[in-house]
Design goal:
GO terms for molecular function: ATP binding; serine-tRNA ligase activity. It is an enzyme of class 6 (ligase). The chain is α+β, with helices and mostly antiparallel strands. It has 2 domains: about 5-90, Serine-tRNA synthetase, tRNA binding domain (Helix Hairpins, Orthogonal Bundle), CATH 1.10.287; about 105-400, Bira Bifunctional Protein, Domain 2 (BirA Bifunctional Protein, domain 2). It is about 40% helix and about 20% strand. It is built from 11 helices and 16 strands. Strands 1-9-10-11-14-8-7-4 form an 8-stranded mixed sheet. Helix 2 (about 25-55) runs antiparallel to helix 3 and helix 4 (about 125-130) packs across helix 11. It binds one RNA strand of 92 nucleotides through helix 2 and helix 3.
RNA sequence: GGAGGGGUGGCUGAGUGGUCGAAAGCGGCACACUGCUAACGUGUUAUACCCCGUAAGGGGUAUCGCGGGUUCGAAUCCCGCCCCCUCCGCCA
């Protein structure tokens, strides 16, 4: 949020933040901001005097001003700290045309594919375990709940999907990026992943944080830089999430786990391009799901369901036969300048000014959930799984059936 | 992990308490010159924030890896941290 514009937009912005249920008092923010500016001006004025005295080598005047200045500087620092803390918790302003309310108020704005008619569909756990490609029990033994092992063809399937995506995204002009999966505090803060969201993040004893998505390391890549736009990246990473506060949710299976692999798309664009870029990211996601032959619906999230950084988010929900409903497998967000402001990522306008970029991110594929959808939607009568055509050239098999290990 | 060296503008690099937001060179931009290009010449060339101004612009503050300290005054002195380089050790 641009504090310079806060006073003029106080009412509108407060309304917008209220829509997403943010507990933010912009009036308070404005107050602190103005107080900060006031003491800042005083301090700078005094410092100018001190500099004059210093230049004249007027030791006495310098001493006198210096002691006064010290107090003022402490005030400036205190106001700045208070302001920073307040601002850190202000989420992005939601887009004006998104629905009010929370998770249940998301609006279905499109569908793709048609669910197959499967009699007595089995769930991904039964399918995966009977095929010997998924072992949840041993994952739990090794690391506790919400961990799992993938085996044999499931492993091959994952790498096939990755290869396919790399080709697809490279073709679409994304640069491929493979980066750190541990990030420093500065990088995490810039993306807005600490602060209120800190519960979700694993921290190491060296004060590095395990990333919850490649989005974080892509953003960190251009931290503090002025870059040419548009710039598009696709990055693979393992993702680590504490899933604090999700007790009891999706405990069965691998829909919600502490660790999963994901390919993420990320765009840095000029502000006037971001709405269109968002649509394009979603279009790519749809192309991916269509390629994998998974039926889905497209959901425009309600204001109350947005993450801190997002102004607008569209989820793709894949059909899960065993649950007889759609579940989120993809998400694409326009974060406008929210992340860019914190990460100080700018571009040069035609007139030579540096302006904040807009950042957008979207799932290409989150392997865990995609595996769930693939197994369940492509199960056949005999419990085998058919592999979608787009992956055939990346695999030596066209279906997964039980293999006997001797 | 141990020992030593070092982090200065887009780049190279000088600067060890005031005359330093910072020499010089390169690069960039503008102008002039040339039949065109190149070279030469002249000028210009960091960022953030604050204030005044409709604006052009003007003034101020801060920034020499980051944070703190000493001092009337810090790129320069002191402390802590981060990063890079060299050597040794360890290691996929």
């Amino acid at each position: 949020m641009d504090l310079k514009l806060l006073e003029d937009n106080l009412y509108t912005w407060q309304e917008q933040l209220n829509r997403r249920g943010a507990e933010v008092d912009l009036k308070k923010v404005l107050e602190v901001y103005q107080r900060y500016l006031e003491v800042l001006q005083k301090a700078e004025g005094l410092r100018a005097e001190r500099n004059v005295a210093a230049k004249a080598q007027d030791i006495e005047a310098g001493k006198r001003i210096g002691s006064e200045l010290k107090e003022l500087e402490d005030e400036v620092m205190a106001a700045r700290t208070e302001l920073d803390e307040l601002v850190a918790d202000i989420p992005n302003l939601p887009d004006k045309d998104i629905p009010d309310g929370g998770e249940e108020n998301g609006k279905v704005i499109g569908v793709g594919g048609k669910p197959r008619d499967i009699t007595n569909p089995r769930d991904h756990i039964a399918l995966g375990e009977s095929l010997g490609i998924l072992d949840i029990e041993r994952g739990t033994k090794a690391s506790g709940s919400r961990f799992y092992y993938l085996k044999n063809q499931a492993v091959e399937l994952e790498f096939a999907i990755l290869r396919w995506l790399m080709d697809l995204l490279k073709d679409k002009g994304f640069e491929l990026l493979l980066g750190p999966q541990l990030l420093g505090e500065k990088a995490m803060l810039a993306g807005g992943y600490l602060g209120k969201a800190a519960d979700e993040v694993y921290k190491t004893q060296d004060d590095l944080y395990l990333i919850g998505t490649a989005e974080q390391s892509i953003l960190a890549y251009h931290l503090d830089e002025i870059i040419p736009v548009p710039k598009r990246y696709a990055s693979f990473s393992t993702c680590f999430r504490r899933e604090a506060g999700s007790y009891g949710k999706d405990v069965k299976g691998i829909i919600r786990t502490h660790q999963f692999d994901k390919v993420e798309m990320f765009s840095f664009v000029a502000p006037d391009m971001s709405a269109r870029e968002h649509e394009q990211l979603v279009a790519i996601q749809e192309e991916i799901l269509q390629g994998l032959e998974i039926p889905y619906q497209k959901v425009l999230l309600a204001a109350g369901d947005l993450s801190m950084a997002a102004a607008r988010t569209i989820d793709l929900e894949s059909w899960l036969p065993s649950q007889n409903r759609h579940r989120e497998t993809h998400s694409a967000s326009n974060c406008t300048d929210w992340q860019a402001r914190r990460a100080r990522i700018r571009y040069k306008t035609e007139s030579g000014e540096s302006e904040l970029v807009h950042t957008l991110n979207g799932t290409a594929v989150a392997i865990g959930r995609m595996l769930v959808a693939l197994l369940e939607n492509h199960q056949q009568m005999d419990g085998s799984i058919s592999i979608p055509k787009v992956l055939h050239s990346y695999l030596s098999f066209k279906e997964i059936r039980q293999i006997t290990v001797t």
